[in-house]
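User: I'm writing a tutorial on reading structure tokens. Could you give me a worked example: one chain, its sequence, then its tokens, then a sentence or two explaining what the tokens reveal?
Assistant: Sure. Here is the example chain.
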Amino acid sequence: MLVGYGRVFTREQNLARQRAALSAAGCAKCFFDKASGKNTDRPELTRMFDYVRPGDVLTVVSLDRLGRSLEDLIGIVGRLKREGVGFQSLHEKLDTTTAGGVFVFRVFAALAEFIRTIIVANTNEGPGRRPWPASGPPVGDDAGEGRVRRAAARRAGPVHVVDRQDARHLPQHPLTRCYPNSSRRRSPRRG
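And here are its predicted structure tokens:
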């Protein structure tokens, strides 16, 4: 037997479209909640679970009418499967009573587990945690070399600006060449 379930977020939203689609699909009994999909206290969903029997098929207009997250959907469909109840979504044309539908749903479950693993890994790193010590990221081929360079730079003190006369002996880039007898810069020759 086909059993329908629908949900709208607020009391102002209309269930007529979902009711008509589920009736057209052949649902003998339908349950409708007016609550958020994230809300775990959905009385009609609880009544639907009490009503269904092995061999029944829960039908929804769209996956987002049953749950707001992939994890929530997988939990609900897993419970249906344990109770011997099939699941189908009209909009997505997903039907767990067929081999293809079971395959697609298992792919969904694998993706949800993958996403959950990534979230756990990111959470374990924590916000603002650095994978290196407070002295900064390692520099060079070995981390000790970077610490030695930073320590030497701290001992050397602040960088001093060199005036134009002292800078004449330093190597210069052609585009920033200083000309001692002129107050303006000249562009290098092109040729």
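What the tokens reveal: Helices lie at 16-25, 43-51, 63-66, 70-82, 99-125, 143-156, 164-167. The chain has a mean pLDDT of 77.
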